[in-house]
Amino acid sequence: MHLSLSRRDVLKTACAGLAIPLGLPSLLPANRTENAPAKSVLFINLMGGPSHLDTLDMKPNAPVDTQGSFQSIQTKIPGLIACEYLPKFAAAADQYTLLRGIHHSVGDHPQAQQYIASGNRPTPNLRHPSIGSVIGHEYPGSGTVPPFIVVPRNDWHGGYLGDANAPFKTNDYPNANKPFEVRGISLLEGTTIEKVTRRNRLLTNLDTRFNTSSNNKELRDAMKTLSNQAKRMISSPETREAFDLAQEPDSIRSLFPTDELGQGLFLASRLIEFGVPFVSVSHFGWDTHLNNFTGHQKLIPALDNGLDAVMNALRAKGLLEQTLVVVMGEFGRTPKINQNVGRDHYPRANFCIFAGAGVVKGQLLGGTNDAGTAPDDGTDITPDDIAATILHRMGIEPDKTYYTSAGRPVDLIPEGRVISDIFA
């Protein structure tokens, strides 16, 4: 597996007196892959942390208190077995690259979520922006549809880029049996664009004190940006159309399950069609300290069906080759089953699925030892590398320098290395 060197890696090696062939394009993340950058990212966030041992890193020869109760099935990737509740993934594994043995040391949910969100280990000294905020900042679009959308919610944020770059949250999943209404976009019954315009004009005339205040300029600027964005969105037919799943043909609608994840991914496929560069769909419930196998037995089929559906929908829409699909949670779960028939937090071993946008098909990268307790000897993949790879594929180099509101220069992901082997 090849990981391009970060700028810090290059400097360390140079300082050690080694000759660095800086002209080689495979070494430096500033040199892009030959393929054109992806146009969108779909990040399926398995919130709570799925068990690697009960999904895509099974150890059938491990001790009984590690194996668990699930059976394994062969996938289309030679040597890769999967959980029996992943039959669709197993049948289509030759369409994905699977990374295993991803590791870090952050065992707390909020901080680990911030780690995979930003590619930077959380620190009290600086709030790093999520990769969705960075991508939305680089590719803001027309402003009629938010560039960074979360279905329905998570705690990712704009960090030092400010609240104006925070995600737009739908706060709910679509329901297959009724129209999807999004607060701040859907017009209430009896409300017209003309009425909204008049109210905004009146608010602007009255709100002079706030606009001229010298207190907290950063917050005031963010509020002004968000207010202008909200006005554009609510008055734009394109915005409402982007969220209007009733306009989807039956051929696409019928692909998706009617559960929450399935409908969230249904909406994501439409938002990507409307040019949203970063969409994240949250799948809750993976924090299975109690009854791990009962919980995963419900969660895994939803993931299997939803991922298969959105892959087929993006393919049918002609969007898969320009959309980078990423699936992961904040960490794995303990190899040893606890006394509550559950598994606890385990950041030393995790997995991530990549697909679309030039991803090599049918590839397995990385791994864990025979007990599933740690990466094997040849694997060194961190959340920094995952985030750096996503940004790189979107045409944004992870060593790009941004500036905080105080003028402090900050590299986006200084420890991140692009995993170039993921892409053809």
Explain how this protein is built.
By secondary structure, the chain is of the alpha/beta class. It folds into two domains: 322 residues, Alkaline Phosphatase, subunit A (3-Layer(aba) Sandwich); 59 residues, no CATH class. A hairpin with a 5-residue loop joins strand 13 and strand 14. Helix 4 packs parallel to helix 13 and helix 11 runs parallel beside helix 12. The chain is globular, with a radius of gyration of 22 Å. The relative contact order is 0.23. About 6% of the residues have low confidence.
Let me know the average pLDDT: 88
Q: Secondary-structure element order, as H and E?
A: HEHEEHEHHEEHHHHHHEHEEEEEHEE
| Secondary structure: number of strands | 14
Rounded to an integer in angstroms, the radius of gyration calculated over CA atoms is 22 Å
CATH topology tier name of the largest domain: Alkaline Phosphatase, subunit A
Instruction: Using the 3D structure, state the CATH architecture of the largest domain.
Output: 3-Layer(aba) Sandwich
Feature tags:
alpha/beta; 424 residues; single chain; 8-stranded mixed sheet; two-stranded antiparallel ribbon; Alkaline Phosphatase, subunit A; globular
TL;DR?
The chain is an alpha/beta fold. It has helices at 7-15, 64-67, 87-91, 109-118, 131-138, 193-206, 208-212, 217-234, 237-242, 250-253, 260-273, 292-316, 383-393, and strands at 40-46, 72-74, 81-83, 97-102, 148-151, 168-169, 278-283, 323-328, 332-333, 345-346, 350-355, 363-366, 401-403, 409-411. Helix 4 (109-118) packs parallel to helix 13 (383-393) and helix 11 (260-273) runs parallel beside helix 12.
